[in-house]
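Why do we care about 3D structure at all? Because function follows from shape, and shape follows, mostly, from sequence. That is the central idea of this module. The next example makes it concrete: a single protein chain, its amino acid sequence, and then its structure expressed as tokens.
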Amino acid sequence: MGPCDLATTLTGTPHYMSPEALKHQGYDTKSDIWSLACILYEMCCMNHAFTGSNFLSIVLKIVEGNTPSLPERYPRELNAIMQSMLNKSPSLRPSAIEILKVPYIDGQLQHLMCKYSEATLEDKNLNCQKEAAHIINVVKKKIHLQTLRALSEVQKMTPRERMRLRKLQAADEKARKLKKLVEEKYEENNKRMQELRSRNFQQPSVDILHAKKHLIGTEEKEVRSEGRLSCFPQEEAGDRRPGREEESDEPTSENLPESQLIPSLNLMKLESSAEDTTADL
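And the structure:
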């Protein structure tokens, strides 16, 4: 039915029918607003808005009677909205959109929405708690069944098998404890090693420098000692026996490097001192 079309069929309960419908004048959505106001009055007062002993008396009250009012215990805003909805002229009745835009109705709707959302959250939490309790009960039953099965299997065993089972369980428990202790000790040792490394981070480089200096000093001492040994007089070639060639691994003046050659100045001094001593004799 379009917005400009009007219905003419006479259907419905007399207590909720609009005046235009009873007059066969045609009706539209504004007739539903009238029926909604009748339901609102009935919800508040627990009685019909228009009553009578028969159908005709009810029709007369709807068409020609006064508009009913809500008791004083209800807000005035709600009473005003209901009376505007029960206006005898359909054009003066508010539409559904206009009713929802009334500040009082809008505030009540917001309050209901908040209350409903809180109730929804509470229901969800309650459902979650019920599901969690159900899961816990199922797990407990499963564990209990497993325990009963284990007990039944143990009861079927011989005393020797039971003793062996107890020993195995004790050994497993001891192994678990030892494993845990070893892991703790291992972590403790790792922490100590890390602390020592962080403390002595610069110590290796310092030790390397000291070792290098020590090696250089020892090499210099060896070179000096070899230089001193080379200063002693060597055995003359004339003193050797003819026809024999002495093989020696000791270095000679020809084989010595330049740094270890015998200084000629010292030999000259030795020869002059020897001649002086012979002349004196």
